[in-house]
Specification:
By secondary structure, this protein is of the alpha/beta class. It has one domain: Vaccinia Virus protein VP39 (Rossmann fold), CATH 3.40.50. It is 40% helix and 20% strand. The chain has 9 helices and 7 strands. The protein has a 7-stranded mixed sheet, sandwiched between helices. Helix 5 links the parallel strand 2 and strand 3. It is globular, with a radius of gyration of 17 Å.
Length: 257
């Protein structure tokens, strides 16, 4: 238990520190829109994640009014999700990340998002059975107790609600060896998954798994000059067996019965 709490403290400190570095007028003005200012590859990467998540629940969206985002960080996905729901609650374990995400959303007129600092494994400040959909990107992978995180998400959903969560694919060359070759440091407590493991995590939390999808060979760190080539590679490799098994992202859709 103490080890898990130490991991959480380290994650909070990391993102609080990064948030303080970004918390400037220059950062808020950069890009002149609600999106977190990043390179073209990062925006493509984020767009793909959000689009695939929304595509997985296309039939559910007309009846989804209240959505919950777990692990919003500085708001990378928040503004994109907010376009599709009447109300979005965005949660992150780092209070300072939540604060600058809220500043950016307010600066650019996004008023249907409520920001909350909370632990994904507990979500004690979030009411139970209050949401139609839950989204979580690049968050469960860092949780010391991923089963608790999935159970918390399920508790916040109304009966029939859906959860969409992504995981890093253990079989992806990017995660297996390319990051190490490039000297990219491993994140705090990062964990890789197979599609079967991710699906089982959902089932163990009490979800009915409706869809598992693997996609994306493009990294957010890609130089902009290579992005057109990798977009073509994504289009082809995601569709030609056995290459999808090597894609970087596993996305799972589960439903609360």
């Amino acid at each position: 238990m103490k080890e898990q709490e130490d991991v959480k403290k380290a994650i909070i400190e990391k993102y609080n520190r990064e948030a303080r570095e970004k918390d400037t007028e220059q950062w808020l003005e950069q890009g002149r829109d609600p999106r977190v200012p990043e390179g073209k590859a990062a925006h493509y990467f984020i767009d793909r994640k959000v689009r695939e998540a929304l595509n997985l629940c296309t039939a559910d969206l007309p009846s989804c009014r209240e959505a919950l985002e777990i692990g919003c960080s500085f708001g990378h996905m928040t503004s994109l999700l907010a376009e599709h729901f009447e109300r979005l609650t965005a949660v992150d374990i780092s209070p300072e990340s939540v604060a600058i995400a809220e500043k950016r959303m307010r600066r650019y007129g996004i008023a249907n998002v409520r920001f909350v600092a909370d632990d994904a494994e507990v979500l004690s400040s979030i009411p139970d059975e209050a949401f139609d959909a839950v989204f979580s990107f690049s968050t469960v992978r860092f949780c010391p107790d991923p089963a608790a995180a999935l159970a918390s998400m399920r508790a916040k959903l109304r009966p029939g609600g859906v959860a969409i969560v992504d995981f890093p694919n253990r079989h992806s060359p990017w995660h297996l060896f390319v990051k190490s070759i490039l000297g990219i440091r491993k994140h705090i407590n990062d964990r890789l998954y197979t599609a079967r493991e991710a699906e089982q995590l959902f089932r163990d939390a009490g979800f009915e798994v409706e869809r598992v999808k693997l996609f994306l060979f493009t990294t957010r760190r890609l130089p902009a000059s290579l992005l057109p080539f990798f977009k073509v590679a994504d289009f082809i490799l995601e569709r030609v067996p056995p290459f999808p098994r090597l894609a970087g992202i596993i996305m799972v859709k589960g439903r609360k019965a």
